[in-house]
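Allow me, if you will, to draw on your knowledge of protein folds for a short while. I have a record of one protein: its chain in single-letter code and its fold written as discrete structure tokens. The full record is reproduced below for your convenience:
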Amino acid sequence: MLFGRKNRKPISIPSKKVEQWKYTTCNYCSTGCSIEIGLDTNKKVVTTRGHAGADVNRGKLCIKGILEHELFDSPGRGSEPLIRDKHYEAFEKTSWDNALDVTSDKIKSIQAQYGKDSFAIVSSGQLMTEEFYTLGKLARGCIGTNNYDGNTTLCMASAVSGYKRSFGSDGPPGCYDDFEHTHCFMAFGSNLPEQHPIIYWRLKEALEKRKFPLIVVDPRVTMLAQFADIHLPITPGTDCVLINAMMFVIINEGLQDQAYIDAHTQGFDEVKALVQDYDPKSAQHICGIDEDTIRNVARIYAKAPAAMSIWTMGINQSTHGSDGVANINNLNLITGNIGKPGGTSLSITGQCNAMGTREWSSCSGLPGYRYLENADDRQEIADFWGIDPEFFPKKRGLAETDIFPAIETGEIKGMWIVATNPMTSMPNTARIRKALEKLDFLVIQDVYEDVETNQYSHVYFPASVWAEKEGCHTNTERRVNLISNVLPPYANSKPDFWIFNEMAKRFDNGKVINFPETPEGAFNEMKQLSKGKGRTLDISGMTYEKLVKAKGIQWPYRERKREENCEQDNEAPESLKGDPRLYTDGKFQTKSGKANLLPIKFFNNNEQPCQDFPFWLNSGRVVEHFHTRTRTGKIGNCNKFSPTAYMEMNPDAANELGITHQSYVRLTSRRGDAVVMVQLTQRVPRNMVFIPFHFFDCVNRLTLGLLDPHSRQPAFKQCAVQIETVDQVEAARLNVERRAF
């Protein structure tokens, strides 16, 4: 008998008869897993599986990838273009031509009345690279606004800024293969098992083959911290202090790689002088890690034959995010751990194609890591596109986090939001809501009609999803991979590439600039623009055919690589591998060719717990959801594990406030409030709570919009809240209402 039943119900695995497997790449996180989509005899998608021959995931998938095929028929998808005069009126269906005509006319009229930069465009890390390139061509070359950015400002901007400051260029210098070679692994604010499960599996596999120290720096006892040899529960936002103290130990004990420093870096004397103010005895009182542990970790890291650091949002989402990245780079440069197997600074990217945004979208500059501030770069792209270089601005415009405040001041009158959901993802969402209500014109382009930000739009463009399109992604380790077109677009939705091309036809420069009709045509343009002496971002040797054959190729992968390594008609497998690491020759993208060692002084400008708001608020990801649940909230077997907003809270702190497990509470910050269900756990310290960031009208009602001065990225993870009990019946009603999103 089992729980009162005499007959156990047998497990039944439904038969999914697959007639054909089609190759593609996962469209969730930045890991870059190769996927095969299974179609039955009726050409209907019935399942997905990991591709065993792919180097990235080797047949493995996380829960999101396993269930990704359910996206095609998920509820809430947009089927027709929609239009209305006021955001509070009901939508009416319209034709694509009318929706595009109205939008282009409104853009032109707003720009004619208020100036070119009065219309803003905000995109996403979820598009294909060819779509990014085409949108950048449209925004920079046709519409002409300088206020154009992507939601990668919310996740990867600090990594980009830190790489540029240290190495002279963006681009992660390491790769997943470094796990196989490292002798010490240090993770800053990165919870791989839940954020990037397949990358964690690669790390775990490496640890099983050859044990090396695993050090995790995180204020919360994350899943990765539970597996660590050493867990450093740091005070939020003080990573720079910890790293400076580590460098104090390394330099004062003579553990640095002085030969590498002298040959390949500049600025060592300034860093050496600065870290003298961060001896572990004083640093421990700021960062919360005792001095003996700081000394121990510093010695382990410096003495390892090869050591590597990774980080994710725990570093990036801070007022010190860019400084934190630059300081991680400092740590690896002074120990000689850049450009060699097992030695690297590897930012673990957030979205599936955030790297593609950084490379080709023209958000922060021009295609291929070119700068608006560089006259030669402006001239080169203008010549390639066939327009006057004076059409380009001479410096970057507003970042996404500055665009929304510019609506409040009247500088921005209209906006086009593509595949992102700021009503859930931006900090201080009450302020975002008011800003969107103030816009004269808002266009939302998204797969889902019911995305929260669409509440405030005047025109809605229904976009196709994932393998209803074709194009490339670039993953965390610079690996370009292909998303093959498996199905036709849903209903009357259209690929983003098509939408951008059609919009370009409605602007004068769209008749001058060549807009290829196919994504592969755009890819060929990108290949041409990637060529150049000393350019790291070189994809000129790639083709769609090669990408599928290799299951992804890392850049740089130059045209001459084929000529050197293989015959014309008999391409050897080794010739389909790009360069796994950057800066292996010790030459960097700075004017001097040397990496910059930067003295990072810590300024404690975080919002911190106080008598009125006694708890740190931390936020992050859970494995079954992705970003704002726009997609995973629609997938039953993803959503059922975390269907409602919850908060991790220490039992001792809860006991003091009379709060019980699975009850509802109300949190209040200086900006707003949120109601969540309590999960009591020892994973968080007594003065901290943790809330997943995926849920609408929840944690980002509380977070503050303080920005990193270099990257303009918000400090999502450092703010203070108070907690109080709440009417349980009313809270439950509110919870059910919000679960509809």
Notes: The longest strand covers residues 673-680. The chain has a mean pLDDT of 95.
